[in-house]
Amino acid sequence: MTDGSARRSAAIARQGEAMQEFMARAVLFQDAVARSVGLNGTDLQAVGLLMSSGPATPGELAARTGLTAGGAVTAMIDRLERAGYVTRTRDDADRRRVIVTANPEPVLAGVGPVYARVAQRWNEYLATLTDEQIEFAGDLLAEAAEINREQIEALRGTGRG
Quick check: 114 and 128 in contact, CB under 8 A? Predict the structure, then answer.
């Protein structure tokens, strides 16, 4: 093995270790954020999905989170509603349908300061990088997110992955 290929192999191995560490810490961070406002990780992810992807029926929310459409998603919506993070309304077009909508203000009041601290710290680090490094990092993270999305779909048996 040449020095160049050994260096590349070592760099690839290090990248794999770093990604594994990053993903584990991201999950633990999200859980800690959720617990700081009296929720569990899935609850926080669900309200985040409602904020980013818009209102949903309980069934749609179950599909987004991977929960079963029955009691688990209803209990989650109940917890989020009690916390003031979501509201349930009847669909104007079909009164049998329930629509769950995020209430961003209380969510941001609860978890916003934590994410603001992380954003500040991250922006301080990004300021030390060149434009090319930032662009590369953005591409790398976007590709990692896409690979994760594909694998989530594959594991749930719904997708293209």
Answer: no
- Residues 34-47 have a mean pLDDT of 92
Closest CA to 80 of 63, 61, 97: 61
Average pLDDT, the chain: 92
Annotated domain spans of the chain: 3-128
- Count of alpha carbons within 13 angstroms of residue 6, beta-carbon side: 3
Q: What is the DSSP string of 49-115?
A: HHHHH--B-HHHHHHHHT--TTHHHHHHHHHHHHTTSEEEEE-SS-TT-EEEEE-HHHHHHHHHHHH
Query: What pTM was estimated for this model as a whole?
Result: 0.80
Per-residue pLDDT, 69: 59
**Where are any strands of DSSP class E within the chain?**
86-90, 98-102
- How large is the angle between the packed helices 58-65 and 71-82, nearest 10 degrees? 100
CA 1 to chain centre: 40
Per residue in 83-121, pLDDT (tens digit) is: 999 999 998 888 889 999 999 999 999 999 999 999 999
At position 60, the amino acid (one-letter code) is: E
SS3 93: coil
For the segment 73-90, the average pLDDT, to the nearest whole number, is 94
Just give the CATH number of 3-128.
Answer: 1.10.10.10
